[in-house]
Amino acid sequence: MANREKFAIGEYYHIYNRGVDKRETIKNPTDAKRFFQSLKFFNSKEPVKSLRQVISDKNSTNRKVSDALVEIVCYALNPNHFHFLLKEINDGGISEFMKRIGGGYTWYFNNKYKRSGSLFQGTFKSVRIESNEQLLHLSVYINLNWKVHKISGLTAGVEKSSWDEYMGKTNTRICSKEIILDQFKSDRDYKNFAESSLREILKTKEDKRSLEMIIGKYFY
Predict the structure, then answer these.
(1) What is the pLDDT of residues 50-70, one digit of tens each?
(2) What is the pLDDT of residues 147-156, one digit of tens each?
(3) How many other C-beta atoms lie within 10 A of the C-beta of residue 208?
(4) d(CA 146, CA 151)
(5) d(CA 220, CA 85)
(6) Can you list the domains of the chain with their CATH numbers?
(7) 126: enclosing H helix or E strand
(8) pTM value surpassing 0.85
(9) N or C: which end of the chain has fewer CB within 10 A?
């Protein structure tokens, strides 16, 4: 497994984790919505509130980018694991953001399903992005993660990613997409790149060493 990074301001990181014993952490669309809300509302330098308080605060939806702990480039929420591509923009920002996400969502999940103890498999894992090529391919791996893992059927209703935001199919705006999309002439060009990259990812998925050449260190 990857070791935890010492995060540096201005650097990009692949952040990921999964449920303890690979158990589901998102069981239905309501859980997925709650996790997604956590991404949006806990990304603030303001002192943390309960998510219920934050959601009821109309001003929380109008935060300035400068108030954020991190830049969220893209994300994927799956039934038993998640992936984020984050940029450290404040000292300790990623660590604080993930602390809030982990603690807040675990409380919600344990309270809802009458369980106790850890929900995720230890502390989150992280890998620093070392090249622009890795950054681009990793954005595809995360944005299209449900296709990488061939999530379908009943579980398809609980996965959520930033793909629709990249394709302009939603009014949601939580991702800082410019570092990716500004390298393409249009959203369609990125879509074409993503489809090509996905084919390579799927082709080499069972070969860990080959896949690492495309997206960097690979986990689940």
Answers:
(1) 555 555 554 444 445 558 999
(2) 988 876 545 5
(3) 11
(4) 5
(5) 15
(6) 12-130+153-177 (3.30.70.1290)
(7) strand 125-128
(8) yes
(9) N
